[in-house]
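Dear all,

This email documents one entry for the complex benchmark we are building for the journal club exercise. For each entry we list the sequence lines for every component of the assembly. Then comes the predicted three-dimensional structure of the complex as a token string, followed by one or two observations. Please use this as the template for your own entries, and keep the labels exactly as they appear.
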Amino acid sequence: MKEFVTITIDDQEIKARPGEYIVDAARRNGIYIPTLCNMSGVKPAGSCRICTVNVNGRLMTSCTTPVAEGMEIETISQEIADFRKTVVELLLIEGNHFCPSCEKSGNCELQALGYRFEVMVPRFPYQFPKRDIDASNPKLIKDHNRCVLCKRCIRTILDEEGHHIFAFRYRGHQLQITIDPEYGMNMTDELAQKAAKNCPVGALLYRGKHGFEIPIGKRKYDKEPIGSDIEKLKKVKIS
Amino acid sequence: MPKKITIEPVTRVEGHGKVTIHLDDNLHVVQSRLHIVEFRGFERFIQGRPYWEAPVLVQRLCGICPVSHHLAAAKAIDMLVGAGNGDGLTATGEKMRRLMHYGQIFQSHSLHFFHLVSPDLLFGIDADPSVRNIIGVAMENKDLAVQGVMMRKFGQEIIEATAGKKIHGTGAIPGGINKNLSIAERDRFLDGKAFPNVDQMIEWSLGALDFFKDYHKKNKDLIDNFAAFPSSHLSLVRKDGALDLYHGVLRAVDAEGKVILHDVDYRDYLDYIGEEVRSWTYMKFPYLKKFGKKNGWYRVGPLARMNTVDFIPSPLAQKEFERFREYTHGKPNNMSMHMHWARLIEILHAAEMMKELLHDPDLQGDDLVVTGTKQLEGIGLLEAPRGTLFHHYRINEQDQITMANLIVSTTNNNEPMNRAVAEVAKEYLTGQEKITEGMLNAVEVAIRAYDPCLSCATHALGKMPLEITLLDGNDQIIDKKRN
């Protein structure tokens, strides 16, 4: 097996590890491809489509597509920018995302992407779905109004014996995350905090500590836009 | 018999008021009403939300004094988390909140006096509306306009330093505050480099008082008699009777100065205060229960506070307070236009308090939050710029809000504003078949004295989106005017 494969991202030749996903190869080289459902080191879900790039002329999700020798990848173009912005806009109108009163505001990845893609006015009609808040778990409050169904909680929150705490239930537009009634009740504080932290939006709220405890100005995206940490790795202008 | 059809509310409007005045066959005013046609619904849609969202969510009621809602809700939530009944916070927690609140009082009162009221005073009630606005003030009296802008800025900067943002911050959290005031942040208000400092604010506050007193001397009839009527007055006072805008007990006096509500714990407000609903407006009518719906109404706000408190705990404002009380020989002041005088005394008090707090080392403390045993009910009151503000929440064991009751300052002034409109209507409209712009503004001036938070309504340039309809005895429209 070859030690590395050579790919081209935005006319920049890059050496990537065989089998690694495009988004990870780009990230290691200081190229920011926006993601929402993706988390480093976790099996990708490809559910949000924000990381879409053009691979050899086809639009593909970079979090689920492994690199291959000679791939020509385009991450910046008007078409891709429009596509990504549209995805963010659709996510914002599909749920009930009221940033002003959300404790995740300033630390929210969806909000940060909204700023990054300059979502200024709603182009699509708000759906205002009627969704509930499930506060039955002693450690976490689950607000379905804000859930973007990224599956991060499902994929990353397992108890010590490897049981998944979260799962999907129902179908189609009624699809929602659910907490296992047995394992969920025994969730440790650490695991509950991790679940709230891994949630990219404010759908999982830890009861013990609230987001408003971080003052404005000290929140993650108060000073720098999302993706700045990756772009700093190498001075590459992305958008 | 002709019918009148009215469609209300006009949806998605902010701060709209409507006045209807009924005249009989002889063109005598038989009824006048201030209608508030907007419906907000915060008390309903906050149900189900986690309680710690309340201070951040409910403040969105208003863009002018969100800090008041933020802090009243925070005080109620303090009770829920077992952090005392409004007075159990750490020194840093309480003083940071107080500083935020005085910044709010300072900027809101400044906005009202300089931007909204000064045009009426400088140019007269019936002046040309194209001049009678803040731009006109800037042209006529540049210093006054600049002071107004800079005083408002100072208050807003204080809010940002304590709450994180100038409008709709997140500083107050359950049981305390999420930040202290760094030395660098503090020094911005003292060194005068970025903007005029707190000493300048005190000086300008005194200057504004002089401006008003001078105007009063020259226009005694207007200031003393316009929309004047006797009423009871209600506010929070500190336990020792001092003016305290952040915390205290409830006191009310009648028009003669007799105490009719004796320094009661505000958590028992439901025992003393009821709210009446009338079909023609979305704003309720609060009243003191023991005097009934008809006679139990009262005024709140700067004028009421000057009438309920025994003294002001800052030296310059206290001196002015003594002059104010002396004017009515110690009796309650029932003159609506004296609300402006009272408001200016509070501006001065807020400036003095901000100075005192800025020099207090407790603001640099690190002990920010208090926790205790959770309770299921919380009540928080404070004195907002426009008067006593009530926030009341109940939650379930799952931390979700199940009930919210808000009595907003302006709501308390509903009956008084209607009375003020009635007084002015009788004086200016009796026998009139045609409405002039001056008459329209006279009605506005009466309402404006109360600085009602129809929010944007009063805070439009020189005009309110106010509609006046003149009806005859058969409900037929004689004339209609929209500003």
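Observations: Residues 89 and 123 of chain A are 8 Å apart (CA to CA). Chain A touches chain B through 18 residues (CB under 8 Å).
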